[in-house]
């Protein structure tokens, strides 16, 4: 009997020593708060916060909860209580005077109490964990996220500037092309007048004048400084040359994709009226995953079997491909432009 008591006493001391050397704080208490076992760490942390060790676990928990500041809660985005299985686990965060961050947790356990028969007894488990390093990692992660968000926003602005610069570049190239064609046309007209050939077959000359005037009107609309809406500019150009534009599907909400779309529509509009005598342009837009699929159709002549890409279509293709988009020309029952425009 004496040896059994001695073995039990030795086992209890080993258990006590193991719990005291546990790096985090831990305490077991009965349902009324009476401490059953508390190691040195949790007593030391509670003493640093309240000025006394644990005499009643429930009272200590309520005192820690009252001392918890709103700043500390918001600082760590902690949830006051969470459900884990069938047990309710409450959490409290505190910052000690030395700057360390400690997280306290309270959880109910079910244990068999011989004194109460075979029924389970309610045991409360209190834990105190040093989360200073985790808190520092999280703070650095938040700072990095804020810096990354700032960089992302600057990249978005830079991308929008690049898109606008490319648009201005294309407009400038179009103006230079029109200027060259206009100069050559003036020389042709002067030669015809000088050589007395103006009275002969001048259909080609007049057709060239008609095309150059249409290009100049289109360039003038692109350079308009009123409402910057590309849709309004497009509708004004279409109304000017007697063509109706119809949209089917939702237009892109990203500025880059929208500018590319309207650049293609303007070119298709000019070619449809000039070469196919169309009076209606239909744009079918379908959103697919990370891109837009666009078909630009017209009701003009359907006898066209091939299209030669000149300055307008060639420049449009270069611009689309430089922005990661693609263009295909289909000559079936007329000419159709097929576009694939990536989202931003």
Question: Mind explaining what this structure looks like?
Answer:
This protein is an alpha+beta fold and 344 residues long. It folds into two domains: 2-111 and 120-130, Beta-Lactamase, CATH 3.30.450; 142-342, Histidine kinase-like ATPase, C-terminal domain (Heat Shock Protein 90). Helix content is 51%, strand content 24%. The chain contains nine helices and eleven strands. The protein has helices at 2-20, 40-50, 57-67, 70-76, 132-194, 203-222, 230-240, 255-276, 311-322; strands at residues 25-30, 35-38, 81-84, 87-95, 101-112, 120-130, 244-248, 280-288, 291-298, 326-331, 335-342. Strands 2-1-6-5-4-3 form a six-stranded antiparallel sheet, with helices on both faces. Strand 1 (25-30) and strand 2 (35-38) form a beta hairpin. Residues 77-87 have low confidence and may be disordered.
Short description:
By secondary structure, the chain is of the alpha+beta class. The chain is built from nine helices and eleven strands. The strands form two sheets. A six-stranded antiparallel β-sheet has the order 2-1-6-5-4-3, with helices on both faces. The chain has a five-stranded mixed β-sheet with strand order 7-8-9-11-10, covered by helices on one side.
């Amino acid at each position: 009997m004496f040896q059994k008591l001695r073995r039990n006493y030795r086992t209890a001391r080993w258990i006590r020593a193991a719990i005291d050397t546990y790096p985090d704080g831990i305490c077991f208490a009965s349902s009324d708060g009476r401490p059953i076992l508390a190691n040195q760490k949790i007593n030391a942390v509670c003493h640093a916060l309240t000025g006394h060790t644990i005499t009643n676990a429930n009272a200590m928990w309520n005192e820690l909860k009252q001392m918890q500041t709103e700043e500390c809660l918001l600082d760590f985005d902690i949830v006051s209580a969470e459900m884990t299985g069938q047990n309710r686990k409450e959490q409290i965060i505190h910052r000690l005077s030395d700057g360390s961050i400690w997280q306290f947790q309270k959880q109910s356990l079910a244990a068999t109490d011989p004194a109460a028969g075979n029924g389970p007894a309610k045991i409360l488990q209190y834990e105190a964990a040093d989360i200073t390093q985790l808190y520092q990692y999280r703070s650095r992660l938040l700072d990095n996220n804020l810096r990354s968000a700032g960089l992302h926003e600057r990249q978005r602005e830079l991308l929008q500037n690049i898109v606008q610069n490319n648009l201005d570049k294309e407009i400038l190239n179009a103006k230079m092309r029109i200027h060259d064609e206009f100069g050559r046309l003036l020389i042709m007209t002067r030669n015809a007048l000088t050589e007395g050939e103006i009275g002969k077959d001048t259909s080609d000359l007049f057709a060239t004048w008609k095309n150059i005037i249409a290009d100049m009107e289109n360039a003038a609309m692109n350079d308009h400084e009123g409402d910057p809406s590309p849709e309004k500019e497009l509708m004004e150009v279409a109304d000017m040359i007697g063509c109706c534009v119809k949209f089917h599907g939702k237009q892109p909400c990203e500025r880059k994709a929208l500018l590319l779309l309207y650049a293609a529509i303007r070119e298709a509009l000019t070619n449809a009226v000039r070469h196919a005598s169309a009076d209606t342009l239909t744009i079918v837009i379908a959103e697919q995953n990370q891109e837009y699929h666009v078909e630009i159709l017209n009701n003009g002549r359907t006898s066209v079997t091939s299209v030669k890409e000149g300055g307008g279509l060639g420049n449009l293709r270069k611009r689309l491909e430089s922005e990661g988009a693609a263009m295909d020309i289909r000559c079936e029952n007329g000419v159709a432009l097929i576009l694939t425009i990536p989202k931003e």
